[in-house]
Design goal:
Helix content is about 30%, strand content about 15%. With about 325 residues, it is an alpha+beta fold. The strands form 3 sheets. The chain has a 5-stranded antiparallel beta sheet. Strands 6-9 form a two-stranded antiparallel ribbon. The longest helix is centred in the middle third of the chain and has 20 residues, at about 130-150. It binds adenine. Adenine binds near residues 61, 112, 113, 117 and 164.
Length: about 325
């Protein structure tokens, strides 16, 4: 008889018992269950490889992390953050974690394979996006941020490299290795602050640089940088080196290129605000609602954004 088939489950919900009679479909997955393909991306202590589940034929992206390197570089905490945050989340705009396992040398995170890769590659290829495409992708990114924040997770390193696109050209946010979880359900942005991590220079918020503190609002700063970049083709703050970039950020030193659509300009100006509590989107649910009704999103049907077909990129 064939064992009952089950949809893959996050590890947290999967049965913990591993009896010899456990059906194949619920037994803990391991390296042998996958056929590994080409490399999709490389990080400083991980590699993402495409893989096919031998029993179901399903395609995944497996993030392979080198244990020795993680320990040597003191990144154990970040690896745990990535696993714990991904395990908490179930949303169309966020890469899903299906299984985790390990062998002697490596940890394996089995993730959604976003077939169209990084948003950054599309910006580079096309130069920039038109207003309509920018509105569509921004809405999906914002919807994903809203969900993340509702689950008590701040991403802290949102950028076009961490925004992947699936086969339908829908957004899948990835790389939660530097995320922050808030156990408390307090929406007060002030106490929702912590520690000293610094993300990618061009998208880092001024509060992180000045007070070494990130909050939910820091993700909205990054969103402002991303909207600017989609339309202008380059991020708003870019110096000749990291220090110069940081100087520009803390001094809010940026300009809009000619022809930047006024409605997008208005939104970016309300997101790139130095004081995080004055930034559009801050202040919990009410803040996000205010952001979602900005005229930039006028054409967006928020309850339909994951069914809406992606506009053709030109
Ligand atoms: N590159 C890094 N992670 C990826 C993923 N999950 N899907 C596709 N490409 C990736």
């Amino acid at each position: 008889t064939t064992p009952p088939t089950r949809a893959p489950q996050p590890e947290s919900q999967a049965p913990k018992t591993q009896l010899s009679q456990t059906p194949l479909s619920v037994r803990k997955k391991g390296v042998k269950d996958f056929e590994f393909g080409k490399t999709l991306g490389e990080g400083s202590y991980s590699t993402v490889v495409s893989a096919r589940d031998r029993s179901t034929g399903r395609e995944y992206a497996i993030k392979i992390l080198d244990k020795k390197h993680i320990i040597k570089e003191k990144k154990v905490k970040y690896v745990n953050i990535e696993k714990n945050t991904l395990n908490k989340m179930n949303h169309p705009g966020i890469v899903r974690l299906y299984y985790t396992f390990q062998d002697h040398d490596s940890l394996y995170f089995v993730l959604d394979h976003a077939k169209n890769g990084e948003l950054l590659a599309f910006i580079k290829k096309l130069g920039s996006f038109d207003l309509n495409c920018t509105q569509y992708y921004t809405a999906q990114i914002l919807s994903s941020i809203e969900y993340m924040h509702s689950q008590g997770v701040i991403h802290r390193d949102l950028k076009p490299e961490n925004i992947l696109l699936d086969e339908k050209m829908h957004v899948k946010i990835t790389d939660f290795g530097t995320a922050k979880i808030f156990e408390s359900n307090a929406d007060g942005e002030e106490d929702a602050r912590a520690n000293s991590f610094v993300g990618t220079a061009e998208y880092v918020s001024p509060e992180l640089l000045k007070e070494k503190a990130a909050c939910k609002s820091s993700d909205f700063w990054a969103l402002g940088c991303i909207i600017y970049q989609l339309i202008a083709g380059r991020p708003p703050f870019k110096g000749t080196n990291e220090y110069m970039t940081f100087q520009k950020i803390v001094n809010l030193e940026y300009t809009f290129p000619e022809g930047f659509p006024p409605v997008a300009k208005d939104l970016v100006q309300k997101l790139l605000v130095l004081n995080p509590s004055e930034r559009l989107g801050s202040g919990g649910n009410a803040g996000i609602e205010k952001l979602k009704v900005h005229p930039f999103f006028q054409e967006i049907k928020w309850d339909k954004i994951w069914e809406m077909p992606a506009p053709r990129l030109l």
